[in-house]
Structures are given as structure tokens and as C-alpha cells.
User: What shape does this take?
Amino acid sequence: MIFILEYNNPATLKPMSLSGKILGAVYQSVTPRTAGSNTLSISDLMPTTLFLIIFLMFIGASPGSTGGGIKTTTFAILIGAVKSQIRGKEDVTFFGRRMENNLIYKSLTVTVIALFLIIFVTMILTVTEPGKDFLMIFFETTSAFSTVGLSMGLTPELSQIGKVMIIITMFAGRVGPLTLAFAIAKKRKEDHYRYPSGKVMIG
Assistant: This one.
């Protein structure tokens, strides 16, 4: 997608040879989930490409790595749950294996908390950084949460409050999901009673 979106962008892929375009696009699609190096100028990318990179940064790397984000397995379980609901199936399965309900709940919890954090910090920065482009603020916040290291050059221009918010976001993005994962991984206490089921309209 990056190759297609940036193919005719004179500030990124257009001046390159075909092989250079392919390599540049492939590397730029991988780095939002791992390190913070880049082959293309982030500030010169198309808005659609930036939004795609934000999405990739939010998903992040795989569990057990030093990358941030909600993790690829978390995203995969959520997609599997949506797919099962659309098909009318009760279980979420991958490669002949059924996912336990607690894994689905954990994945949903991590994702929702991450979304709320990014949205909250982005809203704060739009107040503390008047006149700054919203997409730049959104990009910097997501990059900080996922501890990617990519930047559109906004961070040095932030106010003191803005820099503190980015620092807190980086810390929460690195420590928060891990702490949360360990916390909800503990054995739950079984209740001695159950409430009657409630019916709520969805959609």
C-alpha cells in the first residue's frame, strides 16, 4: 500500500528506481512495528500513508519483542472474533485451535485502554499546541505510545506540557500494556452467584 500511495510522490518514491521504490516501501512498512529508522522522509509522506503508518504503529510488534503497540496477536484475535461473529460461529479459531474467551477479553481490554489513552493525549495536545496540524499530533502520540521512534518533527516544537504528555505516553505505552497483561492474567476468583442475563440492542 505504501508503494502504491507514494509511487508518484516527488518528495519520496517518485525519483527512485523501481527497485529502490520497492525496497523503500517494504522497509517503511516494517519499521513502524519495530525500530524507529526510516528510508522515506516522514513529514513528506501523503496523509493517507501517514494514517496507514499510524495504524501499523498502533498494532505494533509481536509478543516477546522489544516493540510496542497492542501486539499482532491481540489484533489477530480481535479480527478473528469479528470474523466469527459475522459467520455466526460461537468459537474463535485459528489453524484448528479454539481461542479461550479470556484471551478475547484480554485482547479487547488492552485495545480499548490503548485507544482511550491515545485519544485522551491527542485531545490534550490539541489544546496545549494550538495551530499544530491534527494529523501531526495524532502521529506523534501514536508513535510515543508504541515506542516506535518515528516523528514528523513536531516533538521538539512542543510546549513543556506537551513534552511531558509525550513522555508519559511513552512510559505508559511501554510499561502499561505489560503491567495490564500480567494483572489480568492472574487467576480470577469465581463469584458465588450470577446476575440474571440482560438483553441490550447492539448496532
Q: What stands out?
A: The first strand starts at residue 92 and ends at 94.
